Amino acid sequence: MERAAKLAAGSLLVAVLVLAIKALAWWLTGSVALLADALESIVNVAAAGAALVAVRLSAQPPDANHPYGHAKAEYFSAVLEGALIIVAALLILRESWGAFQAPSAPELPALGLAISVAATVINAVWSGVLFRNGRRMRSPALLADARHLLADVVTSVGVVVGVGAVAVTGILWLDPLLAALTAVNILVSGFRLLRESVGGLMDEAVEPGLLARIRALVSQEAAGALEAHDLRTRHAGRTTFVEFHLVVPGDMRVAEAHEICDRIEGALKGELGSAVITIHVEPEGKAKHHGVLVL
């Protein structure tokens, strides 16, 4: 978790640096498209700060008021980031409309574009770092930040192309048009991030591929039992929760049933990493004849 906190702090520093670079590019050129890019970077700073707080909070161990831990704090950070992205998109649309009504040519376009490209490269590199570590640590906050930065990279590339086109062709309305398209791209990114984050808060089941793997492991490791049913799963940050009913022969000793449960838990934790496994043992009269059949 210390690694996640350091990455979140790094994101905040990168966001501040990129904001300063993009603001300089806009100040030099007066381009509305570059202004739109800079406005999104303000959101990056706020989101990175929220992610840092969430990662630190999620690292706290379970307590009396939060017996399942604090991992879901990262989902709140991701929801906030999605909302901020949408707000930034709306601000950009407002600036674009004003520029459509009174278009103007960017000043010093070559220098402004060079500065913007430098900021884009920084974002692209850091996005790759966050994706790699966020997936490995299964951190919703880091992955949300990575997706946001990737959307920012795509947006910045479009802006650079658009401002360059204005400088070459002299068609002034291309600048606000690119800003408006930037806003649409940001809106889509924001709504997608909100959807994924709210899914985590609503305890959505794990993805189908992982669920199939969990079912296969239960089936393989439950030798001696009869079946497993009512399997339920969910994620809370880096932790996966798995619970199910395990049906065993009615005359099986408690120690034998416990040994089967330990075997299943060991296999699942080996696959899932951080996991909480809850198994309710039942006699064969409770069998439902569906669910996970034991091999």
UniProtKB/TrEMBL annotation:
Example GO BP: intracellular zinc ion homeostasis
Membrane is among the record's keywords: yes
Keyword Iron-sulfur: no
Family annotation (InterPro entries): Cation_efflux, Cation_efflux_CTD, Cation_efflux_CTD_sf, Cation_efflux_TM, Cation_efflux_TMD_sf, CDF_Transporter
Lipid bilayer topology: Multi-pass membrane protein
Subcellular location(s) per record: Membrane
Family to which the UniProt record says this protein belongs: Belongs to the cation diffusion facilitator (CDF) transporter (TC 2.A.4) family.
Name by which UniProt lists this protein: Cation transporter
